[in-house]
């Protein structure tokens, strides 16, 4: 009776394999589950076990490419049960020989991919240094794994018989199982034979295999892929792996040593890393309650609102000319300087009354429209960002706004602001320009729906009536919640603010 051995399915996307090496010859007697040959795909290497005991008849040679399901060999099974009894007795003898020096404890050590770095989440099994079924000692290197940053050696975590779980080329997550070790007491001795001629032939054949076998000069799947991509033949690379196998590192080294067709060959001495002396100390501080609250609220705003930002630019020359002309008289009469904040606050109040959605907020399933303008002014305090509120700013004059800004800013710097002074607000103005900011996208101060960002004033060439003029320009940004405010309303609001700032006399006449 004959048993056909076919190429097994070894993966979803693999349709064919190549015979790498026959471990048995045509006509040899094989036992059940004995490894017959080695199959290679474009991803990994697999061993083909015998599905029955009998005489092997090879149908495909080393190097042949076969499709999944194709016949690779035939096993002619024994007719009588004599041979099977003999094989059983031989196995029992082998077991008794092995048990004389080593004994399985029954413990199985499962080895998983260790943590090899903070940002590394997966590795690739580059090369098995020890074969499946080999005896390994504790801390002996059994495999090499590659990450996107470096190559690491995998030591055995126990002494015993190695059982592969993952194949070369497999990608494993950190913590994924890579192999098992059947723990034994002591190291097994090699079984001896009573036939001196057979022993002599075995030692001669093993010597030949040590000198050169199929693995010599053969590239692993990962190395084959690298060499194929760059057009380098395996014969041009010297393997440093087990039995002369070409590893991934050998392929990469060959790439580095192979000169480019376009670049001249240069010989450079290896450069050593620059060593400098300096402090490597770190300092940790506990976050303040204010910082934690601000952090929590800002993250919540980013996650819970449909925030967008629209930009425009403002010619600040008209306001600067007015300040230059009246600042001395203004300060003499009101006892406070005339700053930019009063102009922006007045302009924002006028625009908010014309576009009430920008001055609204969401409360559950309702939109609350505010008929007043409580303007929050973002101030940088020693303990962090605070946002005191100017109440009913739409009813205030320039000097009242300036005085309130100075009062709130002074209390913020002295950490004397009350909860009431920082509560509420229907719209926020933040001025990053005092720190040199050119442009930014400010984050909404919840539960408000919009925030205006001021920036630094920079002289730029601008086209005015067909002529180029140098003007002091400021970028302004409006971040808004798209759930309440549509694009038309946000852009129109910002254009109205720009119009009022570029012609501040409109603020006096309400037009």
Write structural notes for this entry:
This protein is an alpha+beta fold and 511 residues long. The protein folds into 3 domains: 1-101, RNA polymerase II/Efflux pump adaptor protein, barrel-sandwich hybrid domain (OB fold (Dihydrolipoamide Acetyltransferase, E2P)), CATH 2.40.50.100; 214-256, E3-binding domain (Dihydrolipoamide Transferase, Irregular); 289-509, Chloramphenicol acetyltransferase-like domain (Chloramphenicol Acetyltransferase), CATH 3.30.559. It has helices spanning 82-101, 196-211, 221-230, 248-257, 289-304, 317-334, 340-354, 398-413, 419-422, 487-502, 505-509; strands spanning 2-6, 16-22, 29-30, 35-40, 45-49, 54-58, 65-67, 71-77, 103-112, 122-128, 135-136, 141-146, 151-155, 160-164, 171-173, 177-185, 307-315, 360-363, 366-369, 375-377, 379-381, 384-386, 389-390, 427-431, 450-454, 457-464, 467-481. Strands 17, 20, 23, 24, 25, 26 and 27 form a 7-stranded mixed beta sheet that branches. Strands 1-8-6-3 form a 4-stranded antiparallel beta sheet, with no helix packed on it. A hairpin with a 2-residue loop joins strand 21 and strand 22 (384-386). The model is unreliable at 80-100, 191-211 and 258-262 (pLDDT under 50).
